[in-house]
Amino acid sequence: MALSTTISRSLTTAPTLADSVDPASITVAGIVRGQNASLVEPENGFEREIHPSTLTAEVVQQNQTQATIRVELRSKTSGKPIVLDERDRAAPIDAPRRSGTITVAGQEVETNESGVALVTVEQPGIYTARYQPGSWISHNTAYVGDTATARWHPLGTLSGWVGLIIEVGWLLVPFLVMLYAGRRVLRLVSPPTMLSDNP
Length: 199
Fold this sequence. Notes:
Blueprint: H1 2-13, H2 17-20, E1 50-51, E2 53-62, E3 67-75, E4 100-104, E5 107-109, E6 116-121, E7 125-133, E8 142-143, E9 146-152, H3 158-189, H4 192-195
Parallel strand pairs: 1-8
Antiparallel strand pairs: 2-3, 3-6, 4-5, 4-7, 7-9
């Protein structure tokens, strides 16, 4: 019993850091349980302006096997490019970065300082580019998402048609050779009266 009394007495008499802090000097930012406070409106108000964006997509280069789609993202109100890739830009470390992605053909791409991104696709078809902006809460200039489409097919160009004709021609060569050889063999094997035009 004497041992337990000594331990409890030493724990209760030891000074703590909380004893040396004045409760009136403590300031807590955020939500505190059991406390009521009024909202303080920011200088620019509670509303945040959200700007529309313009996303364009077009095929800039194509051949028989692949195409390059150029995607451009700009602010609709100011016409300035929206930069999603800021790794190469000189900016303070604590400066907010613009987040958001553009998705084309299952690939996520980021625009450069000109607001442009290039995507290479290998399957013909209609491709939809979709801009998904970052959270409007964390961006000084907030934007609305946008979509654009681009169509690519190898037959969309003259070289595509020429390539198709050449490929079909090469596929028809064996049939033409077989037709010619069949007629020659038929002439050799059949009696001359069967092939004559006179009855």
